[in-house]
Amino acid sequence: MSNAQDKDKAAAPVNVKLLLIGNSSVGKSSLLLRFSDEQWLPEDESSATIGVDFRVHKMDVKGKKVKLSIWDTAGQERFRTITSSYYRGAQGIILVYDVANRESFDALPKWFAELETYVSSAVVKIIVGNKVDKEYSRQVPVSEGQAFATRMNALFVEASAKTAVGVQEAFRDVVERIIDTPELWQSAGARKSRSGGAGAGAGGQDMPGSIDLRQEPEEAEGGGCGC
Ligand code: GDP
Description:
Elements (H helix, E strand, L loop, with lengths): L1 H10 L2 E8 L6 H10 L16 E8 L2 E8 L12 H4 L4 E7 L3 H5 L1 H11 L5 E7 L11 H10 L3 E4 L8 H13 L2 H13 L33
Parallel strand pairs: 1-3, 1-4, 4-5, 5-6
Antiparallel strand pairs: 2-3
The chain binds guanosine-5'-diphosphate.
């Protein structure tokens, strides 16, 4: 019997929940689209914020099958209404700034402060300096981004959702670090089974509309966007 259980364990994917956060328009949705759909919407076709909200992506990392659920704020940050439920169950956080927009970099401490409130310190963080294709208008030197990440005990990569440079690397780096930290995903599994699988996203079952904009997840059942 225990043999069968072992087999089940080996076959079951590790569920990992990642969140994208950062100021509006830094390219969170674009990074998610680039990573999960290998897609780029030209600037003139995308509104200021594209507003993707949820993607599931499977990958093999360090010999393990990983089922990633990746959540985007879908513009919630514009209204300062990111709720605690958005953060619940996350094992990895991708903090994005725009290398051509200093204000978005200077906002990172505020985002870290919010993280301190909502997630455990063991959660893996990566800082992504996006839009590196705009080298001509860079406002944040790579050394400054790297130094800040080191200080905050976060991984760091510069990327461009437009050219795809650094994007795979960003997601892979954070997932590898999570896989290297079994207490993150093993406890997530335990949490999930305790709650009957109704957790906020780690199981990949949730629909985009279940982002809890109103603290009333049941109301969002139809998948409609509350924004
Ligand atoms: P979000 O609000 O953080 O989700 O940002 P979006 O993904 O909606 O992107 C905001 C704007 O920045 C859009 O016009 C995108 O086309 C543009 N953008 C996103 N990523 C990049 C990038 O890597 N390079 C350039 N040049 N523009 C980008």
